[in-house]
Amino acid sequence: MRTLIDSTFSHFPDLQEARERKIAEDYPPSTEDLPKSKLYVRVAEGVSRQARNNFKNDLLNYINDEQVYIFDSFSFSEDIKSRMIILHVLNTIISLICYILGLF
Prior knowledge:
By secondary structure, the protein is mainly α. The protein has helices spanning about 1-10, 15-25, 50-65, 75-104.
């Protein structure tokens, strides 16, 4: 990536100042002076939660930045599904109570 950027600026030197100004305004500095905002990593389906947690911990240890957080969408969707079952049961119970009270 760095080679492509340097090659582009050798042909269009006017763009280099605009790029540096935009990076300084919008993105925190990185080790290679390349913009960074998000990193998406796709993990194969069926990977265990333990393996995903190990990967997250290894990645956070490698990055060594306190402002970085990792969001595990598989774990999030599993937790939401289990909570939705509880909400569905509570909704059913409350609906039955309201129906019974409505008969009086």
